[in-house]
Amino acid sequence: MSCTCRKSADPLLGDPDRYVSFIGLDCDARAAHLMQRVRHYIDDPRHSNAFWEYFKKKAAGANGPRLDDLLLIHCHLGQIRELFEDLDDAEGLALVDGIEKECC
C-alpha cells in the first residue's frame, strides 16, 4: 500500500488533495506569479488606492514582519479577486481561483 501523502499531480490519479500534501502544486511559484500580476496593476497610479499602497508596504514588511507571498494572498483574496474583476483580467482571476482552491 502506498502512502497517500505522496500523491502527485498526475492527471491519471485525479486532482491532488491539498489537505494531504502540497507535493506537485508549486504554490510558492504560483503565488510569486500572482503577486507579479497584482503589482503590474497596483504599481500604476491609475489602479492604486490607499488599500493597495498599504498592501505594498505590508508586502515589503514595512508594517511588521514580511509575509510570504502565499500568506499575503490568502489574507487578501477578496481584494485581489475584486482587482482582477474590475480590470476584466480573466487570467488573473483563474490564478486566484487556482491558488485559493489548491494552496490556501
TrEMBL record:
<comment type="function">
    <text>Is required to sustain N(2)-dependent growth in the presence of low levels of carbon monoxide (CO). Probably acts by protecting the N(2) fixation ability of the nitrogenase complex, which is inactivated in the presence of CO.</text>
</comment>
<protein>
    <recommendedName>
        <fullName>N(2)-fixation sustaining protein CowN</fullName>
    </recommendedName>
</protein>
<dbReference type="InterPro" id="IPR024899">
    <property type="entry name" value="CowN"/>
</dbReference>
<dbReference type="GO" id="GO:0009399">
    <property type="term" value="P:nitrogen fixation"/>
</dbReference>
<keyword id="KW-0535">Nitrogen fixation</keyword>
<dbReference type="Pfam" id="PF20543">
    <property type="entry name" value="CowN"/>
</dbReference>
<comment type="similarity">
    <text>Belongs to the CowN family.</text>
</comment>
